[in-house]
Design a protein that fits this description.
single chain, OB fold (Dihydrolipoamide Acetyltransferase, E2P), Rossmann fold, 4 domains, 10 helices, 14 strands
Length: about 400
């Protein structure tokens, strides 16, 4: 029996594959991995059993730089997102076996319409499940407070859209207060990152001395990627639909609504549009208050005019003998008028005093005051550290001081 070197045997395999599979094929598969290196795209393909979800086939695929440079922008333009793990794709490939690197499929074309169809099917399935669970419209049933000034924001801290949102709210006469709950807004970690932020908001909302939030704003802006797949997941949609506060989304895209947009209380296109929505809500409230003030003043003025006219008519019919009675009635009317005005004045002063107390309470709860007095706060995983048993070796601690922060590692 002839003995071959490994290279010789691999050469025979290569020749056999080249002779038997000398054409291109369209193949449907799911991406279990997708990465770029030096301009080339390397993929891991997988096929799962439809009933058990168990992998029944695997293969490696490569798309060389020259081809990938044309296919990538076309795919992202059509589908609105880049290739990533979990997508179902239809690829045109040919077989290649290399003596040193083994077998792989070489990609020459990608059909974005196939992926679009699969994405649409999955989105419709998510929507169907949400409606079946009876939670699809839960957020729409919530009422946004007319005094929605305390805003919880879920966004990337470095996103340009977040800065635009905060600056636009600050450039108003209204006392908006925002608190950022940082989250990853693109890629595979979007779902869990936003859910973690929602849980943190819910926990703070139920703390004894915390100032309650009026609503939650989820915004995403800036960046070159068009990846929005993380906003089309069942788990994230369920968390948003069941959240007890109105959620406003301003994810910053012009294509069809994501599932997250559909289940939220209000959907706007951009972070700046979200800010404008909140500003308009407050302006509308201010307008109503001004209208009520005008109506009260108008009512009081009409009441005075009616009473004066009534007294004038009575004075014409009452003999001069009863002029004293007229004087008493005028005095009584004046007292009524003074009582009304006094009541309104006390009511306004009471409301102003209540607002001052609220402002003092908010100021007293400001942690920066403690920092200025020489105290410090140590954070562990973004939360205030109260018990040393909560940390372990190599954990990172962040100590906030008046004039900066110190990062330390637990030994």
């Amino acid at each position: 029996m002839t003995t071959f070197t490994l290279y010789e045997l691999n050469s025979l395999v290569r020749q056999a594959i080249e002779n038997a599979m000398d054409q291109e094929y369209w193949v449907e598969a799911e991406l279990s991995e997708c990465r770029e290196s030096r301009g080339h795209c390397y993929m891991e393909l997988i096929q799962k059993d439809e009933r058990s979800n168990t992998p029944v086939a695997r293969a490696s695929a490569k798309c060389w730089k020259n081809t990938w440079g044309m296919l990538q922008p076309h795919f992202e333009r059509i589908t609105g997102q880049p290739l990533h793990a979990g997508l179902k794709v239809r690829l045109k490939v040919y077989a290649q076996f290399h003596e040193a690197f083994g077998f792989s499929w070489i990609v020459t074309d990608i059909d974005p319409t196939y992926t679009l169809g699969d994405m649409a099917q999955r989105r419709q399935e998510i929507i169907r499940k949400l409606k079946e669970e009876g939670i699809f419209d839960l957020q729409k049933e919530l009422t946004l407070s007319p005094f929605a000034l305390n805003i919880a924001v879920i966004s990337s801290e470095t996103a340009a859209g977040y800065g635009d949102f905060v600056n636009q709210l600050a450039d108003t006469p209204f006392a908006f207060r925002t608190q950022l709950f940082p989250a990853i807004m693109q890629g595979e970690q979007v779902e869990q990152s936003i859910i973690t932020a929602l849980n943190a908001i819910y926990q703070q909302q139920n703390e004894l001395f915390a100032l309650p939030f009026d609503c939650v704003v989820i915004i995403r802006g800036g960046g070159a990627t068009a990846d929005l797949s993380g906003f089309d997941t069942l788990t994230l949609a369920e968390n948003v639909a069941n959240f007890p506060l109105p959620i406003i989304t301003g994810i910053g895209h012009d294509r069809d609504e994501s599932v997250l947009d559909m289940v939220s209380h209000t959907r706007v296109k951009t972070p700046t549009a979200a800010a404008q929505f909140l500003i308009s809500n407050t302006e509308k409230t201010q307008h109503h208050i001004e209208q009520y003030e005008e109506r009260i003043a108008h009512f009081v003025k009409n009441k005075i005019e009616v009473e004066q006219l009534r007294l004038a008519n009575l004075s014409e019919r009452i003999p001069p003998l009863f002029s004293l009675t007229r004087a008493k009635q005028e005095t009584l009317l004046e007292r009524h008028l003074q009582a009304i005005l006094s009541h309104l004045q006390r009511r306004f002063e009471k409301e102003e005093h209540r607002l001052d107390l609220l402002e003092q309470k908010v100021t007293a709860l400001d942690p920066t005051l403690l920092l200025k007095r020489g105290y410090s706060m140590t954070l562990h995983k973004g939360k205030l550290l109260r018990d040393p048993s909560q940390v372990k070796s190599n954990d990172e601690l962040v100590t906030r001081l008046e004039k900066g922060t110190i990062i330390s590692i637990v030994k």
